[in-house]
Amino acid sequence: MGTTLRILAGFGVTLWSLYAGAVPITFSAAGVDPASIQAGVDSYRAALGTLNPNVIGSFGSGRREINWDGVPDAFSSPNNLPANFFNVNSPRGVVFSTPGTGFQVSADDSNPTSTPIEFGNIDPSYPGLFRTFSPQRLFTSLGSNIVDVSFFIPGSTTPAFTTGFGAIFTDVDFANTSSLQFFDATNNSLGTFFVPHVAVTETLSFLGILFNEGAVVSRVRITSGNQVLAGGNTTEDLVALDDFIYGEPRIAQQVPEPVTLLLLAMGLFALGAFRLRPTAPANR
């Protein structure tokens, strides 16, 4: 009986491990130029899988990317970017939100309004702070340093989930300030991970997280530095964003809730104990 009880108890632990035991895998790099982080970015891409085209529907595996450089001038600085641009105009399965007032993609050097690059339209000093990984555009929220990225089946309003998300940050000066925080379908945090920093200007940092238990991430909160990009604000730590890299948005991998797992384990335990209890001798 003792052996059977140990087996049942071990089975309960295994069930719980299926829910909570998988450890996120972290990919990170930082340096003064794109070459400094290229290997880290490429390793994360390889871990996520094949790059999928920007079309409606889910491929079920692989990855999507946003590098901002294909955003037309009409949706770039000094104009704002629609929050659903990368689910409607260019279907990649993400919609942005922010506590601030909107979003902006920086101008390139050939734009028809001669808007300065790298958010020089917001403050003329910013091109001296930021660097691009994939030229020439960057991304920022306005009125806040927080961007929430929610996932959908590309081109639809059907909520979706991803196996992981990574982003490239520029000019991360302070440790434990810029971060990625991940949430599941019930808005429970799956962890907060901090972006590596380099204490000089015009640097690049990369952070990517892969959840090897499957597609469990419904939302990612990006915190960029500790300051808001705004005219006259040149205080550290001002941070802008470049490429986003993430697992193909798809229907969630169904993982039982912890209570369900524990009830199942307890039921199996009770069943085993019942079957093994001593039987009273028959009357003679």
Describe the structure.
- This protein has 284 residues and is of the alpha+beta class.
- It has one domain (22-253).
- The chain is 19% helix and 24% strand.
- It contains three helices and twelve strands.
- The chain has a five-stranded antiparallel beta sheet, with helices on one face. Strands 3-6-11-8-9 form a five-stranded antiparallel beta sheet, with no helix packed on it.
- A hairpin with a 5-residue loop joins strand 8 and strand 9.
- The longest helix has 19 residues, at 2-20.
- It starts with a helix and ends in an 8-residue tail after the last helix.
- Residues 1-21, 254-266, 268-276 and 278-284 have low confidence and may be disordered.
SSE blueprint:
Blueprint: H1 2-20, E1 25-31, H2 34-48, E2 63-66, E3 94-97, E4 102-105, E5 139-142, E6 146-151, E7 164-170, E8 179-183, E9 189-194, E10 204-210, E11 219-223, E12 240-247, H3 258-276
Antiparallel strand pairs: 1-10, 2-12, 3-6, 4-5, 6-11, 7-10, 7-12, 8-9, 8-11
Helix pairs in contact: 1-3
**Class by SSE composition:** alpha+beta
Helix content: 10-25%
Q: Which of globular, elongated, flat, extended, rod-shaped describes the shape?
A: globular
Largest sheet: 5 strands, antiparallel
Low-pLDDT regions: 1-21, 254-266, 268-276, 278-284
Percent of sequence in beta strands = 15-25%
Give average pLDDT, whole number.
Answer: 86
Strand order of the largest sheet: 1-10-7-12-2
Termini separation (Å)? 27 Å
Number of domains: 1
What is the CA-atom radius of gyration, in angstroms? 24 Å
Tally of strands: 12
- The H-and-E topology, N to C, reads as HEHEEEEEEEEEEEH
Helix segment tally? 3
